[in-house]
Design goal:
With 301 residues, the chain is an alpha+beta fold. It has ten helices and four strands. It folds into two domains: 28-201, no CATH class; 209-299. It starts with 27 loop residues before the first strand and ends with a helix.
Length: 301
């Protein structure tokens, strides 16, 4: 059976059609949830339209020059922590995206990130506008994650296909990082937006990104038609990530993000895999999720 075309163009099922446009744009289908429980009644009133404004901003903007058939499904869950000044808020955000698995009636998580430090300004009844090249603490945050989501999505369909999107996210981080704003500085521990995109565009990470493509496009997308082939491709991708891991900083956020997103899926997909040593291998490659791999290994006995 043929597999889908490698560019992120059109519906996945269009396996015999060639896309004429390059992987240069996409629209989002983004679910926005906002938790206001930590702030007072006055702030809740000021934030009454916030979720809808963010939703419209993410979903109604044409992020590139072409209209594609399948939008990237994503979620941003925003947890307002407190008000830090007039119309200023400190929050945390979960950002996640998913894409369909070819030949299966289900989807796979592509990226899951928890951003712990986002301070933004929101004025009720003032519209959010896209203004490329100018940094604002609200719109630029949303732009950054829109581009990060799109880059991750394209990377699953084409080897290093997300690079143009990641570069756009990097441009935003460069604008922000000079201001010393929370969440935008380079860090040696923990997570920051600038560190995330810096790690993503580091050439030493290219083998991991190529393995992410192999894991999804050659692996997951093959499972329904040829389980043995899908397993072999996914295992090969995971082994390559393990090899690459030895030569990069163990704190690399791309590496961490991949396993935080995929560890449970890996454990479940390989439950019927014939090699009993697989979960021991994964415990070495991804020791932070060793407990899960061991649980699934024991299920095989």
């Amino acid at each position: 059976m043929s597999l889908p075309i490698t560019t992120r163009c059109g519906v996945i099922a269009a396996i015999v059609l060639a896309c004429l446009a390059p992987a240069s744009s996409q629209q989002l289908d983004c679910t926005i949830n906002v938790n206001y429980e930590a702030v007072g009644a006055a702030n809740k009133d000021l934030l009454r339209d916030f979720a809808n404004d963010v939703r419209n901003y993410m979903n109604n903007y044409q992020w590139g020059t072409e209209q594609l058939d399948e939008k990237v499904k994503c979620t941003i869950d925003i947890f307002i922590q407190n008000s830090t000044g007039e119309n200023k808020y400190m929050s945390q955000a979960f950002v996640g995206s998913q894409r369909s698995i070819y030949g299966a009636k289900k989807s796979t998580a592509v990226v899951r990130i928890f951003d712990e430090a986002w301070e933004f300004t929101y004025l009720k009844d003032r519209p959010l506008n896209h203004n490329p090249g100018t940094f604002t603490d609200l719109a630029s945050f949303l732009d950054f994650y829109a581009y990060l989501i799109l880059g991750y999505d394209y990377d699953t369909y084409e080897r290093l296909g997300g690079t143009p999107w990641f570069q756009k996210a990097s441009d935003i981080a460069s604008l922000a990082s000079t201001g010393g704003l929370k969440g935008w500085q380079l860090v040696t521990t923990g997570y920051s937006r600038t560190q995330m995109i810096t790690d993503m565009l580091n050439p030493t990470v290219n083998p991991i990104r190529a393995s992410i493509y192999r894991y999804h496009f050659n692996g997951l997308d093959s499972l329904t038609a040829d389980r043995q082939k899908g397993w072999a491709q996914m295992r090969g991708a995971l082994e390559q990530i393990g090899t690459t891991k030895k030569g990069i900083d163990a704190r690399n956020l791309v590496l961490k993000s991949f396993f935080d997103t995929k560890y449970l899926e890996v454990a479940e997909v390989f439950q019927d895999y014939p090699d009993p040593e697989f979960y021991l291998m994964m415990s070495k490659i991804d020791p932070s999720h060793q407990k899960t791999y061991e649980e699934y290994r024991l299920k095989k006995h």
